[in-house]
Task: structure prediction
Amino acid sequence: MHISRTMTPVQDLPVETVERKGFGHPDTLADGIAEAVSLAFSRACLDGAPGAVLHHNVDKVYIGAGHITRRYGAHELLKPAVVRINGRMSASFAGEDLGIERIQTEAAERYLSVFAPHYRVGESIVIEPNATQHTNRPDWFTPKSLDDVPDAKDPRASDTALCVAHAPASPTEHVVRELEYALWDWSGDTPRPRFCDVGQDVKVFGWREGRTLDVTACVPLLSDSVASHDAYQERIRHLESELQGIADTLADGRLDVRTRVNPTTSGEGYREYMLALGSCIECGEEGVVGRGNALNGLINPLRPRSMESPFGKNPAYHTGKVYGHLAQQLADDVHARFGVACSVWLTSPNGFPLLPPRNVWIELAPGEGPGDRELTDFVQERMAAFQVPGDLLVQRFRR
Result:
């Protein structure tokens, strides 16, 4: 394990920029559906005859190709959007069919019911399961027994991948992420849209210079709920005032925040941000896994980012998923235990034992944190307590 004290906390930089693609953004939907399918398949394997997570990766989910026209108070569906679940997935175990098309379809439908609640499967959106078993490794995706799933007993790094995580979130990151979360009601078992007239394809962008944070939030109104241009502008002004108050509370005096919602309200080229069903997949936009938020729910170009997107990858052994979650857990734990900002870097060569990672780098700010021996003992203890895949089989809605 390597420990250095050379990190400059991102909040100490003179300029910081952060973006979040909201839950209804096409890329975020693709990430979420891929993850939901992987977790549903993993749970089915653990609860059923295999008793272990079988080989799969569904990290190439594609969404798009819909077409809906909109006008004040109405819309017309011309072509449904499509969710194509691309990847590979074990189709049988010991000769018994696992029903993977049903698992894929039901998992995607459940996820869409939460984060794209205005879409109706089979009507405005179509789900196309498409996981194959093509490979040059015999019985890899059609195992006759767990002897054909060697990683069930001896998990090895499936790839040479670098994963990095950071804690805590900077004030800018906190405001940008939580501002989109504020558009959801988190009081139940699953989140629900807070406003019945607001769509889910939201993007929040923050630009900080010194203590001044400018936030631009692109928030769609549902066209059926908008009676006129004047009604649109009035609702946007109301949303802007409400989100400004939330942003001020989130900043808690650490930043001076200016929040703007759909700021272009007049002039040549003006275009209202209205959607019929809440996501731009309805008008030709496309979503693909790995093009959006990192595991922490943000896009921050000033922080190093993992080389792998974890969404849809096997939670039992895929390096880019396991190390992504482990790095974030370690960063959170170090910050909680010692009260310092830190970055955690993890990697292992392909084929090496998965846990513990062969290479661990903990980076702290100069002059901060515990001694090297105390930090090493703590990190090794936390790594030993990490369970694969158990710690990863949780639907992390707020990520």
